[in-house]
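Problem 12. The chain below contains 285 residues. Write out its predicted structure in token notation.
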Amino acid sequence: MKGLGTALITPFTEEGNIDFQALSTLIEHQLAGGTDYLVVLGTTSEVPTLTHKEQDEIIAFVVKQVAGRMPLVLGIGGNSTAAVVERINELKDTLVAHFAAILSVTPYYNRPQQEGLYLHFCAVAEASPVPVILYNVPKRTGVNLLPETTRRIYDAHPEKIMGIKEACNSVEQFTETVNIAHGDFAVISGDDDLAYEMMKAGGDGLISVASNAWPKEMQQIVSQQDTFTQSKMGHRIHLLFVEGNPSGIKTVLSEMGIIKNVLRLPMVPCTANTQMVIRRALAQG
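Solution.
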């Protein structure tokens, strides 16, 4: 999985139901913008607020809408190893038929030691019928998957571990992971604001929040290492995360007329002041 992947948001109607019409528009926006692959039901999708039935409906809809026009990655993660393995088993047939890989986030809140992370991802790799992309995002999970542990997981299951989405927000750690990978597995950035630096450090691509709105621009940064576009997009990307994700990106997509600005609790829309700042930034082009 190289190039630009978009971590799809989940659009909701004003009544709080999944807005499949808006989801269709968003998918076509990605295809037209040159996104290389889609990440379905990643953490940006507000997946903890979605029932398994809703998740299954989103999976079926995205598979039908994309119709083989780009690869798909499915987010399956959690802080109970047994529950993650059970969910993988439930979706085995769907994964084999329609998905290139799964993206599995480090267990959150319970903050396991490195040995616990190793054993957790070994269990995920053994259960998954498709390749696995590890996902390290310490600022959200409270635990940091260290480069040497990532290498150890790969060495235990080289046939299953495709790569890691590294959202450590540290160019130093990202570079260490690239070096320790030795080209055996992909090292994918998960930090929009550091995308250019991560590509220069040897990254294999970016799984982006910002590309929900700006796939063409984010593709330029990833594929061309375009410093001008990175500089131009810097303020916009910063605004996406001022009041949390996906509140910022949903404000932008709402201003673009693609979705309604609706989130599920405990997430709420950005404040009126932040929405005004975002509106001004978009108007400036």
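Discussion. Residues 3-222 form a domain with the TIM Barrel fold (CATH 3.20.20.70). Students who got a different answer should revisit the alignment rule from Section 12.3.
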